[in-house]
Amino acid sequence: MSADDAVNTPIAKDSEGDDPLRRIRLDKLETLRGMGIDPYPVSFSRTHQAAELDERYAALPPGAETEDQVRVAGRIRAMRNSGMFIDLHDVSGKIQIFSHKDFLSTEDLALLRLFDIGDLIGVDGRVRRTPRGELTVNATALTLLAKALRPLPEKYHGLADIELRYRQRYLDLIMNPQSRETLRRRSLIIAQMRAWLLARGYLEVETPMLHAIPGGAAARPFVTHHNALDIELYLRIAPELHLKRLVVGGLSDKVFEINRCFRNEGLSPRHNPEFTTLELYQAYADYTDMMSLTEQIIAHVAEIATGGLKISYGGTAIDLTPPWPRRGMAELVLESTGIDFLTIADAAGAREAARHIGCAISGTESWGQALEAAFAARVEDRLLQPVHVTGFPRDISPLAKADRNDPRLVERFETYVYGWEIANAFSELNDPLDQRARFEAQMLARAAGDEEAQPLDEDYVVALEYGLPPCGGLGVGIDRLVMLLTDNPSIRDVIAFPTLRPR
After folding, report:
1. Residue 428 near residue 472 (C-beta atoms within 8 A)
2. How many whole angstroms separate alpha carbon 406 and alpha carbon 404?
3. Whole-structure pTM value
């Protein structure tokens, strides 16, 4: 579009009906175009951000003026004295703009009168510090970079509507510094995880999001249809089986992926159907190696993100200093309820024991599912300090090696902090015959109505028949970890665009 075209572009009708505030801004937009000003220019070359100026001129005394010319840009967040003083915010902070007739042309003064809070502008000017100590740019030229057609929420009340914050995250980020800080710290945490692993010889890889067979975890998948192939495909619930294929192939002894998974489940403060995980596999390692690795990587990112290993979440002091305790699931249930599931021989007895302590039991649960239900009901939410929970039942862990001492259990742990699972790891099952038998048991459970039981992945079993070395695997829930390290109460606070019910 040419400049002439821009000037002659018709003003869109007000999509908000007769909103008078928006109408006023639309009228200003029309006036700007009538003046030959493009309210949405292509670019603006700035020289500094606000924080850079603060640092550079930290020693400039009150009342001092310089001849230093700078170009800054940002969003107008406040205007005083008819725009003589403007608080201009960029991603790094705030800089005050002094707009006075002694320094601005007649054209710029006319442009200034058409500015509103929320507009994005560029400013050329000289740096000074006011007698009151405020670092300021004396504007010598003004450029409108984007005319805001909607007013921002009122400054002192901010954006208090939680639902609106999630639905219009861009508005939340404009108004709430804490929201910006949370998402920036999330980025830092992920970057530090990646750097930590790369420095230790892990190879970052990518595996498919679309799976022909949903596997790698117990969860209901999202289903989609590929038109050209005329087949159903599933959004992945876990990358596990593809990552282990890469280890079989010898791509690397250490692989990892940081990416999205999708599970067709309910929403809660700790559950979003679309979530981010770190998943890694290391050849010639077992689940005890994964425990140490979990502690090291979480301690590392915690120290970077929070400045230490002693944090506070929801008012509870939490110490992330390794090493963390290792407690068996049945041991914890016994401690809490007085019932020792390891002395119960069959599924019927385990169901009755779980029912006795108040678990909702349908009557079809296996021994391991009953133990897991007892753990979830009576133990899980009490695990406030970091702990590795070991001794998971074999019948709910189809991809983990059997425990060396008790064949009913597997070499698996989940790491809990503040009552949440934040990591899950195995000594990976690499016996193809055992794996096939486990998948077949899962298929029977699926046929009996367990929608989360895993289907048989024939190609994965074939891959194991070519030989998977002894292997440790680990998955870390990044969203929950970010919640913990930023003291946010809901997973929606740490995901830029959480899943919401349409209005």
Report:
1. yes
2. 6
3. 0.92
